[in-house]
Amino acid sequence: MDLSNINIEQYLRNNDVKPSYQRLKIFEYLVKHKNHPNVDTIYQELVSAIPTLSKTTVYNTLKLFLEKGIVQPILIEENEIRYDADVTVHGHFKCEICQEVYDIPLDLSDMKTEGLEKFIIKESHIYFKGICKRCNIANAQ
Amino acid sequence: MDLSNINIEQYLRNNDVKPSYQRLKIFEYLVKHKNHPNVDTIYQELVSAIPTLSKTTVYNTLKLFLEKGIVQPILIEENEIRYDADVTVHGHFKCEICQEVYDIPLDLSDMKTEGLEKFIIKESHIYFKGICKRCNIANAQ
DNA sequence: AATAAAATTGTAATCATTACAAAATAGTAT
DNA sequence: ATACTATTTTGTAATGATTACAATTTTATT
Asked: Which strand C bases fall within 7 angstroms of a protein CB?
């Protein structure tokens, strides 16, 4: 799902979120940057443009976005929660060297999931850890 | 991988972990119960048998086990880290009703992972959220 | 038994997150 | 436009999980 050209204000309204200035800017940051930031990164990146911004607002807003299903949390490392405005099923890859998180297109449809009969799957998450292409090539020099 | 009949002391030694009493008991708990506990659960379950046990020791020990690769962290919810002594690739399913975490056998070998050429994958993690069979059937009554 | 090394423990410090109440903003009715 | 109400934002304090650290205990070695 490509959100880069949506009308963010309308998208928030459609998902039952009143588009306040802070909410618009936080969601816009997620859509524009696709860098899977954590709360602190979002705060640091926006506070210069919104000097009154409070970190509590970032927490509140992300919690709201999660409840409305317009962001998903990315859990890869034990000590950080990152956020992604793309809520379609796709995987993530975190590089242990540069720490970057990449989106990975995934097709889980033909995955064998024996033992899940009668289970209702509402969310699927998959992630990988290792060394990314760029760091791999850089290391090989 | 079934660890239920291994010699835990030998298994720890083989993985470069000196088998102290606390380490034995903590690893034994993980192997015997397979309930994917968090730090606090492990501590609460063992403190009656080891009255001097400190929660710091549980943290230290799990950190050591992680470094040696004999446990893996399970990240499903934002606010809890659970641990699994089965470090082979398999999935997990957390029920949103009973909160239980199930092991799911998985075969990722035929998964399409376009966009990962030249990436070195060292770990693969997959998890699902939803309603488990037991709660699903109970609800349907 | 004496010494050194390693592991455990308890307390204090840290850090991320949440609770909460006051202030600011937006929306509605008069 | 004004008064009133509801919502959102903000800052501070509280919470809770994890880590740092030094003292104690245990284990291993001489």
From this structure: 6-11, 16-20, 26-27
Total domains, chain B: 2
Among the candidates A42, A69, A84, a domain finishes at A84
Could A119 and B91 be called an inter-chain contact, meaning their C-beta atoms sit closer than 8 Å? no
Structural domain containing residue B122: 91-140
Q: Across-strand partners of B95?
A: B130
The residues, ordered by sequence, that sit 6+ positions from A109 with a Cβ below 8 Å of its Cβ are none
Question: For A26-51, what is each residue's pLDDT tens digit?
Answer: 999 999 999 999 999 999 999 999 99
Q: Please give the residue of chain A at the shortest CA–CA distance from B128.
A: A124
Extract the runs of DSSP E, i.e. beta strands, from chain A.
72-75, 81-84, 91-95, 101-104, 120-131
Which of B84, B105, B123 represents a domain boundary (last residue)? B84
Residues A14 and A78 both lie in one domain? yes
Give the mean pLDDT of chain B: 93
- State mean pLDDT over A58-74: 97
